[in-house]
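#struct-help
A.M.: can someone run this one for me? Single chain, 151 residues.
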Amino acid sequence: MRQAMSLAEEAQAIGEVPVGALVVVDSTIIGQGYNQSISKHDPTAHAELIALKEAALNLQNYRVVDATLYVTLEPCPMCAGALVHGRIKRIVFGAYDYKSGAVGTVMNLAQHEALNHKMDVTGGCLKDECSAQISAFFKKRRMQKKMLSDK
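D.P.: on it. Structure tokens below:
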């Protein structure tokens, strides 16, 4: 998770929401990514999807079986759906997303009874640190907007 947090720092350095993700198989990182939606003008450029795509390319298979995704924020519905389709085995996330978390908080696509693949989920790994990283980003962003509006 600490490596995912380092990736989140890379996102923050370019003005992105600080979320980082890794895909691991047998203790080997096969995919990694960080949020790039703002810089790429791409609503699908979430850390999880970038890491999943890289992992699939490295495996030369659109199914990324026996893999664990580590991500600093609970996946949204878009990402959770892609992880189901990619057949990720396990998701480990840091901060809970109380607005759009889709692997247990708001909804649970990872273990939805109607879907043909279920993933194991472990939430709250380094929760306080991951939450603080994201909260600090948005606090700074709000302060910047306030300073601009005060001018």
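A.M.: thanks! The mean pLDDT is 96.
D.P.: also worth noting: The two ends are 40 Å apart (CA to CA).
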